[in-house]
Structures are given as C-alpha cells and as structure tokens.
Amino acid sequence: MSEFEITIDLPGSQYGEVIVIEKYGDTYSLVLGGKGQKGGKIFKKWCYPEFKKEPGKKAVPWKIPLGNQRDAVTVIKQIAKAFGINT
Where are the domains of the chain? Predict the structure, then answer.
C-alpha cells in the first residue's frame, strides 16, 4: 500500500478515469485509475507487462514513475512547461 495517494479527475473522460499520484518508499508515481459506478470508489487499473513478447505472470498497476520528490517536481515542471505553464 502506498504511503499517500492524491486523486485527480480527468476532465472529459467518458470512462471515469483518474490520475492517482502515489508515494511508495522514496518514489512518486502517476497511476491510471478509475471511479467505480457505484459510490465512486477509486481503483487502480492493472496490466500484465510484456516480457519477450509474452505477457508477464503478475499484474502490476499502470504506472509512470517520477523518481524521488526532487526529481518528481522537476518532471512535473517540465510537463507544465510543455503546456505553456511557467513555474
């Protein structure tokens, strides 16, 4: 279980998708998630990563690791800059 999670709704998503920002150990990540139809409970979407053109045996969350807090801030600032937001 992650140390903390922050959920951000994705505007215009017809499937109730969300981005979950989570911290696990020293690593921050973005995880694709969704809202359940009953009660709006947040869940993470899972996948089977490909190894040698075969799906893995264990499912893992769809995640984009951002690194430690300092690295994560740098990456997020670069993303903001790509959209014309000066930080």
Answer: 4-82
How many Å separate Cα 7 from the centre of its chain?
9
Distance in angstroms (rounded) separating the CA atoms of residues 66 and 20: 13
pLDDT in tens, 61-81: 888 889 999 999 999 998 999
Q: How many Å apart are CA 46 and CA 26, to the nearest integer?
A: 21
CB 30 within 8 A of CB 18: no
pLDDT digits (tens, 9 = 90+) for 3-16: 888 899 998 888 88
| Structural tokens at position 64 | 């984009």
Q: What is the rounded CA–CA span in Å between residue 44 and residue 63?
A: 9
Identify the pLDDT of residue 18.
92
Cα of 37 vs its chain's centroid, Å: 20
By DSSP bridging, strand 60-61 and strand 42-44 are unpaired
Tokens of 34: 């969704």
